[in-house]
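re: ur msg from earlier - yeah i can do the protoporphyrin IX containing FE complex, just paste it... oh wait u already did. ok heres what im feeding in:
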Amino acid sequence: KCGSMGGESFTEEQEALVVKSWNLMKKNAGEWGLKFFIKIFEIAPSAQKLFSFLKDSNVPLEQNPKLKPHAKSVFVMTCEAAVQLRKAGKVVVRDSSLKKIGGVHFQYGVVDEHFEVTKYALLETIKEAVGEMWSAEMKNAWSVAYDQLVVAIKTEMKP
Ligand code: HEM
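and the outut:
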């Protein structure tokens, strides 16, 4: 905490903002997840090609059964990252699963730009979902949690 990361530590208020907004969205996680990834593919159409189940599929994007689970993973893991940041000051994902996730993203060719577009789309989706509840503080809390999670994933992005 003492300046090592050059930033403030994650507060209880920030954790609460993330958890509160996710709780609101999670009843319709499938729908928000779909909107989230449609935004990503609007901005970066080529990202669709990364997903094996989209590349080899004839069903329309909205009907692909595998898209929603990935979208939900991003939400859930970012929310969990917020909880851990407050509790432990860092993102802790079980070592084995972090290795696996890092390895999968490396293997499928996910690069920095994809993580950036995804961050933008994530924040836009939450903004739309929570309506009046949206604030600069809420945006910042999700941003920090997402960034820290991505740092953790990237450390394991190797063959
Ligand atoms: C797979 C989470 C960001 C593309 C996965 C898996 C998880 C996950 C849990 C399944 C891994 C497994 O097979 O065990 C996350 C999280 C993210 C993130 C938490 C951000 C914090 C991204 C981004 C992209 C991406 C930005 C690209 C736009 C993929 C692809 C796969 C994958 C292509 C493999 C899907 C397939 O089987 O074809 N991700 N992901 N992910 N993710 Fe992500």
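cool cool. Residues 47, 50-53, 70, 73-74, 77-78, 100-101, 104-105, 108, 110, 114-115, 118, 149-150 surround protoporphyrin IX containing FE (CB under 6 Å). ping me if u need the other ligands too
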